[in-house]
Amino acid sequence: MPHRDESSPVVHGFPHLDTVRSAITALYRRLSPDGVRRYDLSVPASDVLFDPTDGVHLGAQRVARALVRHLGLPEARIVVSFRAMEHAASVELGAGPEYFVELNERFARPAHQRDVGAALAHEITHVLLHRLGMERPTVAGNEILTDVVTSYLGAGWLLLDAFRQDGMSRQKLGYLTPEEFGYVLAKRAEAFGEDPSPWFTSAVAYEAWLRGRAEAARDWRRPPLAGAGWAARRRARAAGGEGAVFPCPVCGQRLRVTGTRRVKARCGVCGTVLDCAP
After folding, report:
1. How confident is the model at residue 54 (pLDDT cuts 50, 70, 90)?
2. Phi and psi at residue 263, to the nearest 5°
3. Of 89-98, 210-219, 245-254, 268-277, minimum mean pLDDT range
4. How far is Cα 215 from Cα 13, in angstroms, rounded to an integer?
5. Contact present, 181 and 212 (Cβ < 8 Å)
6. Angle 175-98-121 (CA atoms, 0-180°, nearest 5)?
7. Element (H, E) at 80
8. Dmax of the chain from CA atoms?
9. Can the peptide bond before residue 33 be classed as cis, meaning omega within 30 degrees of 0?
10. Residue 247: its H or E element
11. DSSP letters of 155-182?
12. What is the rounded CA–CA span in Å between residue 59 and residue 37?
């Protein structure tokens, strides 16, 4: 997983939004709605708080065990090591059952130990996706999928909170932009009635969460959803005829409704019932 150095600009906005939505759709397809609902609680901050009194290696292993439990992976021996490397972390994707994770040596330093959980969350989700058989044809596609699944299954708030920026330095982990992390977390918040905002210790991460939440709210205002408003629905109907194709605002699956009467549309992937109006 790459991390930005202090001289690299942080990309903002939503350049990967279509890929993000397709990753959420794929997650629902692979796990089923009931499978996704097993992750209704995010990993609590107390479980992934690095305790320097444990020592660097024992502290990292304790956090890793908490993330393995949260993601529903089998309990097994976890080895976390630190070394000089270009990226933030790497993981061995073997048959298991052991877990071998390497972290950039910077995370062993006191100033960066609070982000050990963020780096481990991404890498352990790589293990989950490997064992689920979920992958994309490109490295970038796999990394975006991993960021999305980490966030949607309740551990990605750590990745967004690791985004910090001031006059002296900046840091961002993962492939998604801060706003895209906020978008996925907002999708999760809608699905589970969860508010992650109290967990953010980074002011810029909180701002990105707000921007992502605003973008996610717009998904519910796309025609022919009733929340789109009469004028927007009329414009869409004029452009596309009686039928309307639109993404499910929960999982992103493409849906189609026809006719000129108010209907309830049920998403076949996530099971959400949507109110659609002519």
Report:
1. confident
2. -135, 160
3. 89-98
4. 10
5. yes
6. 25
7. strand 78-83
8. 65
9. no
10. strand 244-247
11. -THHHHHT-EE-SS-EE-BSSS-HHHHH
12. 29
